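Q: Hi! Curious about what GNAT family N-acetyltransferase looks like structurally. Here's the sequence.
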Amino acid sequence: MEYQLRVTRGDDWQRYRELRLSALRDPAAPVAFFEPIEDALARSPDGWRQRAVSHLLRTTFVVERTGDGGWVGMATALLTEGGHIHVVGVFLRPEQRGTGLAAELLGAAIAWSGKREVRLDVHEDNERAARFYRRLGFRPTGRLIPDPRCPERRTIEMTLSTPPAEAAPPDGGELRG
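A: Let's find out. The predicted structure is below.
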């Protein structure tokens, strides 16, 4: 199967919504996302359009099947007030995990960052994701962030210590799965 990596647009909002709701319904969601599904379900179409639009401060990358246009994964890169890039909302449908597509998504976010520092947060109970990020060169900063739903649990902030040798194309790149 072949895939295309691209950035989202406002007119993608319905597919963005569907994939985000799938992410929030995933069994790993409690240790992967802070947003409760109830909040996402209550968001208006205009709110979804605004989240789907990529621009200078926020870009969402999606992996799309070239045959039917179905979305199988996404990741968002945010430019923070501190000047670094923060990657959030990393998700791949379960049947796509372990295929290398997540590394392609992160590669696109890293390429988009230019020379800026890239950070992300991983829940302390999400060891699979933490291993994946470590393989890509991310290392803990030492900063722990309380989980707003359960303050005795935390996320671990990680920063990219060694960029991968080759980053994914940031828009319109062809991928193979």
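A: A fun detail: Confidence is low (pLDDT under 50) at residues 164-171.
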